[in-house]
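re: ur question from earlier - yeah i can do the single chain one, its not a big deal. heres the input i used so u can compare w yours
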Amino acid sequence: MGIQRNNLAFYDEQAHRWWDATATIAPLNRLNPLRFKYFDQIVPSWQGLKVLDVGCGGGFTCEFLAHLQAQVWGIDQSARCIAAAQTHAEAGGLPITYRCGVAEALPFESAAFDVVVCVDVLEHVADPQRAVAEVSRVLRPGGWFCFDTINRTARSRLVMIWLLENILRQIPAGIHDWEKFITPDELSTMLAQAGFGETQMDGFNLFGSTVGEIIAAYRRYQATGRFEARFDDDMRVMYIGAAVKGSG
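and the output i got, formated as tokens:
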């Protein structure tokens, strides 16, 4: 019997250790400073903005946004992750509102948010087109959708599954399903159909472009506990972007 793909049980299993710096999930928290180097070019100040984090897990991005003085809501399908997120936010005195739910049916009023953030999530949802439509619905006209996801290419299969899951074991086996990865063209079509206008996308490169560079990046992370990233036109593995909600 083969490995179950897109196995989201991993997140439930990690919920009780979400904020443990030695946990398997911990590296995800170190990506936010890199992501927001990009998103801050789109949204220069987060202070006071109503921001929704879709697929928030145990709250890494929500707390990052709260420290930027945004008004923050988070939603995730995992009740265990939401409980962990609430407990940690309360302990830190952070006024974050968490809800349990799915991206395809967001339990919020239309035009409720200034920004919606969705990172490391679109490649996991059951219906990405419906999820993007729901993001559009809850955004005010002129609001921004900030995202990253994984392209469906031979390179992404090599890096994200063969190398990071099977060889280096940096990612739990089965967490990704290559068939669910989304190409930039596919996502552009989804965004247009959901009423988004101006859109930009760039490569979000953590690993380099060759196997040697990927292994070097992995060893650097092991030694320093830090990722480095560059944003460029190479979108063969991960890519990052933002789209503005149209007024029509």
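Residues 9-205+234-245 form a domain with the Rossmann fold fold (CATH 3.40.50.150). not sure if urs matches, ping me
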